[in-house]
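Section 5: illustrative case.
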């Protein structure tokens, strides 16, 4: 059989080639088959890559807020990031002073840089995969952490904080109302102030070199507390005297300070376990505390196992006596039971 000529046009040029159909038929069939297999494989790979790119990006997207200002719900972080939900593959960097009036949900990473701030959010929610790294000032009305929060400067919530994740505090953390811990709190030299109440549930763990100060502790039986500087903090200012009580392990440290040159002759420190019947535990001469720049420190090394301790100071000058209002100390190292949760 004679070869047949095929003509084709490629890029405007006429090409001529010959194929011996009788001898090349099987090879042509095999070649076409292989051609389609190769092309289908390439297409499949491209589809897979597109899926990976759009569904699970290979690299995270980073957005930076470089402008100062008060941002509304519609323009949150614009022109940097369109929305208040940070995607799990996204990183938001606050590089200036930003104020928001909306909630913020973190599935990805939120970074507040040094000398920058993020303030005014209604609620900050950090999901299990979320990370917050604060090196500046971060202030929110409420915080709910299920992921990881690292604080290297000032983190504050004016209302409540709920932690079921991990919080590492290296500097200053302030909770305006109630702190509920069902996760882990640690730090290295950090300070945490809880204004109203700290509840450490049975799942909760508090450890590390962190100073935690609260007006009211509640530790549910089973909750782990291993913090070197865990303390109760309470204070009273009355008639020129400033009394503070700090509960540490197996002891209460009382600091008595003159806020003005009041010249009391004697200070009598008393303790009670019921808030009604007080007994004297220390008597301080006036000349030991007349320097109002320095506090007189007294350590009560025998607070006992009472769940609540009460301290007061009687100020004496001649026949006149004045009583500094009582400081109530919740003895977290005494009796620890779940029944004490309010």
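Designed sequence:
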């Amino acid at each position: 059989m004679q070869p047949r000529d095929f003509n084709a046009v490629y890029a405007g040029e006429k090409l001529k080639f010959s194929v011996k159909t009788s001898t090349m038929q099987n090879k042509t069939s095999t070649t076409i088959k292989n051609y389609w297999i190769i092309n289908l494989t390439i297409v499949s790979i491209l589809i897979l890559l597109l899926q990976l790119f759009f569904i699970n990006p290979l690299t995270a997207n980073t957005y930076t807020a470089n402008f100062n200002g008060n941002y509304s719900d519609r323009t949150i972080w614009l022109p940097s990031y369109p929305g208040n939900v940070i995607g799990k593959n996204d990183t938001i960097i606050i590089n200036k002073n930003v104020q928001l009036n909306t909630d913020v949900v973190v599935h990805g990473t939120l970074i507040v840089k040094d000398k920058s701030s993020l303030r005014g959010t209604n609620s900050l929610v950090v999901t299990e995969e979320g990370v917050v790294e604060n090196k500046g000032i971060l202030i929110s009305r409420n915080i709910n952490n299920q992921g990881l929060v690292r604080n290297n400067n000032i983190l504050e919530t004016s209302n409540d904080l709920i932690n079921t994740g991990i919080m590492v505090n290296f500097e200053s953390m302030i909770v305006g109302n109630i702190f509920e811990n069902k996760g882990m709190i640690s730090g290295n030299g950090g300070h945490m102030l809880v204004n109203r109440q700290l509840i450490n549930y049975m799942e909760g763990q508090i450890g590390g070199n962190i100073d935690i100060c609260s007006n009211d502790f509640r530790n549910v039986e089973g909750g782990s507390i291993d913090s070197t500087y865990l303390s109760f903090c309470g204070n009273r200012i009355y008639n020129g005297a400033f009394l503070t009580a700090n509960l540490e392990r197996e002891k209460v440290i009382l600091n008595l300070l003159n806020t003005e040159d009041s010249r009391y002759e004697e200070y009598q420190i008393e303790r009670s376990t019921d808030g009604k019947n007080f007994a004297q535990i220390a008597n301080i001469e006036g000349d030991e505390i007349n320097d109002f720049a320095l506090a007189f420190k007294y350590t009560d090394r025998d607070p006992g196992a009472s769940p609540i301790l009460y301290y007061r100071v009687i100020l004496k000058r001649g026949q006149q006596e004045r009583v500094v209002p009582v400081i109530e100390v919740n003895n977290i190292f005494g009796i620890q039971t779940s029944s004490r949760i309010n």
